Amino acid sequence: MAQTCFLLLLIGNAISVSTQFNGYNCDANYHSRFPAERDISIYCGVQTITLKINFCPVLYSGYTAADLALNGQHGDAQCRGFVNNNTFPTAVLFSISLSTLEACGNSLVVSTAHGVNAYGNMSLVQIGNISGYIDTPDPPTIISYLPGLQYKFSCSYPLEYLVNNSQLASSSAAVSVKDSNGTFVSTLSMILYNDSTYSQPLSIPMTGLALKTRVFAAVKATNLDKRWNILMDYCYTTPSGNPNDELRYDLFFGCSKDPQTTVFENGKSQMGRFSFEVFRFVKHRHQKMSTVFLHCVTKLCRADDCIMLIPICGRRRRRDGEQSLDSRPVASGSAVITAGPIITRSGMNNELIPIGNSSRPLNALTIALISGVAILGGVCVGFLVLSLRLLQKSRLPTAAASGVWNPSFN
After folding, report:
1. Where would I find the ZP domain in this sequence (predicted)?
2. 20-106+132-155: which CATH topology?
3. Chain center to CA of 407
């Protein structure tokens, strides 16, 4: 038994020796080659972008870890990576903070494009693309027998999300050779409040909220770089937690707004705030309580660019070349933010509506019904009066014949 263990130990040492090169975990059978595209992987995170480079081909190409730097910034130690020799193969890691990404020459380009989301709505959405490269320095000579190494990378962040707090998770991206996608959705959340100061979280009694109770909602960003603001593009409700539920009621979109909804802040900071009056879905008419889920399609926009995406209601834009933003949002790389359920009383408990609520504005459906009833009533009254007049005229000749003597009958 001891001899067997000793033999296995010798075999393990032989394997470990054969996979070591200059103290690094490299195997000459696999890594004695020039670097290839598969040697770099990317993680596009919320706070940082992490780059991982297979160090072994770099080593076999005649370079050291100190020769690799971001965007040619070889004289800046902060733009170099660090060696992780606890993996196989050994890797060089670079970490790029999104708050200071320009420090090492990385590029941020925000493009604005039209698109169609899953709901068939057209809108403008911004896409942030962060790109750069890692390379080795050129020698101060006329010629060189060493290959020049360069690894290009990019991370694309769609800046519009349909946010759902039940699906919030840490940002993830597929590992790619040169580019990858990231998302800021894990920084977003929606919270409901009782009051306009947004200090008391919404408390729902066991019997549900009374109809027409005003609820205050806030979409917030947490641990997000200050260069981004929140723009709520489209908020709506559904009777279920499914944001794709075919039955929905819109609260606001662009310049279109439910009469009972008020938007307080949008596109000006890392918080969007609005309020609305709770209601019940008619499909819950046989239930004592109705559930309402709130969803918001949310954009992130650079603070200086948000003015481009905010709809201007009631007047035209200054430049004719700019297109109206009164259209529904695009949901590139969408994820979901939902708040709820908001539980309301269905009205089946015979509660009286307070008199103070009677002065509130009627919604469009109620106004249409009242107008229709009034018009129909007017038509009926007019028809009745006309019928009476015609009936009266039809009787006049008979009365004259019976009361006046015809001279031809003398």
Report:
1. 43-320
2. Immunoglobulin-like (2.60.40)
3. 95
